[in-house]
Amino acid sequence: HGAATILQHIGLISSDNNKYNGFFLTRDSGRSQSSGRIPNKLFRRMKQGERHEIGDLQYLSTGPHGCYYAEFHSGECWWGSAVEDAEFHRIMQSWDVYRVAF
Has residue 4 got a pLDDT over 60? Predict the structure, then answer.
């Protein structure tokens, strides 16, 4: 089997200054790998009371100004936005969201 047969998701990681500075990928086996820094807001949240590691991530999408949508193997989903966006928050709370693209 080639590498493509086991790749489940790959995404570019956007830094807080809107430059792409890495990637995040997951494989069918559930293992994840990243190169570069995830958005600072997500990194701080993972290291504070939540205690998640990069390996706990199943899906990660990043956008401008540190925006992110992260899904963990546990099924828990987090998102962060650079600005307060009540409509986005309402949609995320009201619908079963499976993927977000910025």
Answer: no
